[in-house]
C-alpha cells in the first residue's frame, strides 16, 4: 500500500536545522548520509513515526535560498500531530518555539500555529 514517505523542507544550514528539529520539536535524526554532489541526505522524524519524515535539504542556489521559510506561500504547510497536546506545547514553549496564537479547540481537535526556525508555518494538533 502506498504511503507518503518524505516531505522536503528547504533549510539554510543542515546542522542548525538538525539541532532545531531535535531540540525544539523533539524529532529524531533517522539518517545523515553524504551525497556525491557534496550535499547530505538528512531525514528527521517525530518520535515513533514509522512512515512519514522530513527531508532537510540545504538551499544550494539563490532560487532555493529565496524559498527558505516560505515554502507554502505563507500558509500552514506542515501538521505535527500529537497524542498529548499540553505536554508537547509546554516543551516547545520552553524551547523558545514561536507561536502565532494561543491554543484553540476546533471541531477537528486542539491546535496552535507555530513557526519553525525559518518561519515556515506549522500546526501542532491533537486530533479530536
TrEMBL record:
Q: Which SUPFAM superfamilies match?
A: Glyoxalase/Bleomycin resistance protein/Dihydroxybiphenyl dioxygenase
- VOC domain location is 3-127
Which Pfam families does the record associate with it?
A: Glyoxalase
Name of the molecule in the record: VOC family protein
From which source organism is this entry?
Actinacidiphila acididurans
Amino acid at each position: 500500500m502506498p504511503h507518503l514517505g518524505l516531505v522536503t523542507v528547504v533549510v539554510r544550514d543542515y546542522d542548525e536545522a538538525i539541532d532545531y528539529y531535535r531540540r525544539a520539536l523533539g524529532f529524531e535524526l533517522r539518517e545523515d548520509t553524504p551525497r556525491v554532489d557534496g550535499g547530505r541526505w538528512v531525514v528527521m522524524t517525530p518520535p515513533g513515526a514509522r512512515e512519514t519524515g522530513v527531508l532537510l535539504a540545504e538551499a544550494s542556489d539563490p532560487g532555493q535560498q529565496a524559498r527558505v521559510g516560505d515554502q507554502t506561500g505563507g500558509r500552514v504547510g506542515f501538521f505535527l500531530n500529537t497524542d498529548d497536546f499540553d505536554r508537547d506545547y509546554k516543551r516547545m514553549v520552553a524551547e523558545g518555539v514561536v507561536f502565532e496564537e494561543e491554543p484553540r479547540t476546533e471541531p477537528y481537535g486542539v491546535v496552535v500555529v507555530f513557526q519553525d526556525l525559518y518561519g515556515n508555518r506549522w500546526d501542532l494538533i491533537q486530533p479530536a
